[in-house]
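Structure tokens please, single chain.
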Amino acid sequence: MDFALVLVILTGLSGLVCGAEFLFRRIADAENSEPSKNIAVDYSRSFFPVLLLVLIVRSFLFEPFRIPSSSMVPTLLVGDFIFVNKYTYGLRLPVLHSKIMDIGEPERGDVIVFRLPSDPSVNYIKRLVGLPGDTIAHVNKRLYINDKLVALEQTDIESDASSVIALERLGKVEHNIRLMRFKAGSDGKYIVPAGHYFMMGDNRDNSQDSRFPQVGYVPQENIVGKAVRVWMNWDFPESPQWVRIGNKVE
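Here you go.
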């Protein structure tokens, strides 16, 4: 179900009912008659301001998103609820997704929510690695951008010794990635087309991202927004991780 479409329809219908009720009330006042009571009108008058506010906030300001998989570990954990900034990269109309105002462009290193090119009803979250025109290579668990090796520094080994945590530097952005010691990396070389982006998960050896045909290059119009904050973590039936509330997504 497309929640944005449902929200637009409900807001539009309640707005039409409120508008019609206002018009009929004016006619009744002019004729000195009492307008009849209607429960649908009462509900519309109550819910329209709320629906309109939710529509504006969700479409143009912030949208909540839940992390469903471990592809962005260690940056984001399964069960993280995050806020996605919808206006960083420009304002788009809900449902149509057409841009009506340019504000900024995605930058290398941003953590971005986007609509899956092969199925726009599905949202993915990954880190932007390649900009339009870039040549991206992933060889032996190392990342190359335009033939330059991306700096990487091991910082930790996980308790079961199966994975290491390393600090990666993408331009101005420093962030941790996870590398699985006993799993082969997905190697390849990619040239990012104009108007598209190359995305990768921080759980580098356990992420279905732009290296795979199921995702591929992400068109600019599929960008939803930039992940900015964790507002809750709860991977039910496990207990909430209160310490993650308010964490900045970097």
